[in-house]
Write a structure and sequence with these properties.
The protein is α+β, with helices and mostly antiparallel strands. It folds into 2 domains: 138 residues, Diaminopimelate Epimerase, Chain A, domain 1; 147 residues, Diaminopimelate Epimerase, Chain A, domain 1. Helix content is 17%, strand content 40%. It has 5 helices and 20 strands. It has an 18-stranded mixed beta sheet that branches. A two-stranded antiparallel sheet has the order 9-10. Strand 7 and strand 8 form a beta hairpin. The protein is globular, with a radius of gyration of 19 Å. The chain starts with a strand and ends in a 7-residue tail after the last helix.
């Protein structure tokens, strides 16, 4: 089975084209866990399948490194567009991709014949708690540390989140997948690897959550580190950058257009006047290859029912 590995700002995925290749009876979560492992597999932040769609040009299924299926991936969908253009799955500079978060519209940016970046219409951010989902308790007026009063039914903006006896102020946003944004003084010192997994699995987020640690540099620039649901700390997160841009604007800290710098590089994010969030950034092919039948049989449940 042919595969390709691509990355957006170091956020890398293994891609399998099921438009031109038949879809075998594979346990995809098991395969995602194995190919993501740098020792026994290829090494990546997850697995992305490219499939036919009756609603769009292509359909994307995205699996995290732990095998869980995600609704949406900003860096992943940009790289899918690059792969589709490079391999002739699409023609022209525009395409629509069906995801579990809905159909996303993409525009390819070229230098000559090469795709160097992709601009994605990420849709409108979802702020209602039921749509994220998040079940946070609204504390009484004051410092936010008092006894619980009632569940929030409005946007979760700078709300208190208790974690192991400490209170953190968080803003919750869905960009098709759930995000919890909190401000820090310096991202270099942020407790990403200790606090990140505790918030990811916090009872307030019944489907888990991606956690963004944000340093506001100025009204047009953010620095970010991210703990991704199901994958751990990654070099970048496209949906997370969008969530951070929305959250900091809601907190009156930034304008509607920001540059988000992550460990792997920068994304440009705009929360436009039409209510949609637009994300632009690079994408690059790392390698292509073939998964052998022997490896697939021993690592993915090939031939067994998923």
């Amino acid at each position: 089975m042919r595969f390709a590995k691509l990355h957006g700002l170091g956020n890398s995925y293994v891609y399998i084209d099921l438009v031109t290749q038949p879809e075998p009876a594979i346990d995809w979560p098991a395969l995602a866990r194995r190919v993501s492992d740098p020792g026994f597999g290829i090494g990546s932040d997850g697995l992305i399948l490219i499939l036919p769609s009756d609603r769009a040009d292509l359909r994307m299924r995205m699996f995290n490194a732990d095998g869980s299926e995600g609704e949406m991936c900003g860096n992943g969908i940009r790289c899918l567009a690059r792969y589709a253009a490079d391999t002739g799955l699409i023609q022209g500079n525009r395409l629509q991709v069906e995801t579990l978060a809905g159909v996303r519209h993409l525009e390819l940016i070229r230098r000559g014949d090469s795709v160097t970046a992709v601009r994605v219409d990420m849709g409108e951010p979802r702020l209602k708690p039921a749509e994220i989902p998040v079940n946070l308790v609204q504390a009484p007026a004051g410092d936010g540390v008092g006894a619980p009063d009632r569940l929030n039914d409005g946007p979760i903006i700078d709300a208190p989140l208790p974690v192991d006896g400490e209170i953190y102020r968080v803003t919750a946003v869905s960009m098709g997948n759930p995000h919890c944004v909190l401000l820090v003084g310096d991202v270099n010192d942020a407790p990403v690897r200790t606090l990140g997994p505790r918030i990811e699995r916090h009872p307030a987020f019944p489907q888990g959550v991606n956690v963004e640690f944000i340093q506001v540099v100025n009204g047009g620039h953010l620095r970010m580190r991210v703990w991704e649901r199901g994958s751990g700390e990654t070099y970048a997160c496209g949906t997370g950058a969008c969530a951070a841009a929305v959250a900091t604007h809601l907190l009156n800290l930034t304008g509607r257009r920001v540059t988000v710098r992550m460990v792997g590089g920068e994304l440009e994010v705009e929360w436009a006047s039409d209510g949609h969030v637009y994300m632009s950034g690079p994408c690059e092919t790392v390698c292509t290859g073939e998964l052998s039948d022997e490896w697939l049989r021993s690592n993915s449940g090939l031939g067994r029912h998923p």
